Amino acid sequence: MSGGWNTIESDAGVFTYLxxxxxxxxxxxxxxxxxxxxxxxxxxxxxxxxxxxxxPTGETxxxxxxxxxxxxxxxxxxxxxxxxxxxxxxxQALLSVLLxxxxxxxxxxxxxxxKEFTGEFPSELRGEALSNSDxxxxxxxxxxRSSPFVDETQRVxxxxxxxxxxxxYTSINNKLYELDGLQPAPISHGACSVDEFPDKVIxxxxxxxxxxxxxxxxxxxxxxxxxxxxxxxxxxxMEALEAEEHKRTEWQWENALRRHNFVGFVGELLKxxxxxxxxxxxxxxxxxxxxxKAKTKKRSEERRKQGVVDED
Length: 312
What we know:
It contains twelve helices and seven strands. By secondary structure, the chain is α+β, with helices and mostly antiparallel strands. The protein has helices at 12-21, 37-42, 74-77, 89-98, 109-117, 123-131, 134-141, 197-210, 228-235, 238-258, 263-280, 284-305, and strands at 27-31, 46-55, 69-70, 163-172, 175-179, 187-191, 220-226. Helices cover 45% and strands 14% of the residues. Helix 9 runs antiparallel to helix 10. The protein folds into two domains: 12-258, Ubiquitin C-terminal Hydrolase UCH-l3 (3-Layer(aba) Sandwich), CATH 3.40.532; 263-305.
């Protein structure tokens, strides 16, 4: 493999443009704010959902899942890939939905060829093929936040770290499947048609969340749906179309910001401020430094009074 995989955010704009850059057409992601089947149905035609949660790093793998049942036969009949590399689970989860909906949507030439190439592979080899795909890795990494301080491809998580994991839920062959690359096989949650998906998947997600302490609120749910602009055009809702186009513009701007780090810019800005203070003469620079120190000391004292302890 020629390079590593960086961490990407669980963000509708990131996922939407990621799959678009992979050649998928007329599909987008929508963030769901509640575990309500009606909210999921309102998103239009739903292909599946991507769920992000805190992964229990100390948990050992069991022969039986905590909910549902392993469907080992399905591993050869649907696209299911084992996760073989850190940080790839977000893209792997969305591909788990898309590659199993090939007949319902346009996944593009590259992904179709990848699916055909790995069609007869066991799940472990599919995972290796995905991890070694230059195209998929490069598109994935293009949406990672730029960081001049951390090499995310080298860091290894420990049991003390907060580790987050993406998995997919979708209806395939009239069954509700949980597709998690860290599990040995797809997990079946029973009969489920495409139309029943919103009503069937929400209780499964609720049961999963209930296994966590009530104080744990760090979950995220994204729905993979048909491009909402298409429906707006079909029904002639110009207001909804304008809102969706505006949302796309904001996503593009946010994605552009993710590709840049601003350390150099901030450094040059500070240099400029210092130069201006030095030009003023008469001790202006020293006065500015002392004023800054006094303000910092005042903030620290106020934080201590409030019971907040500053970290070293």
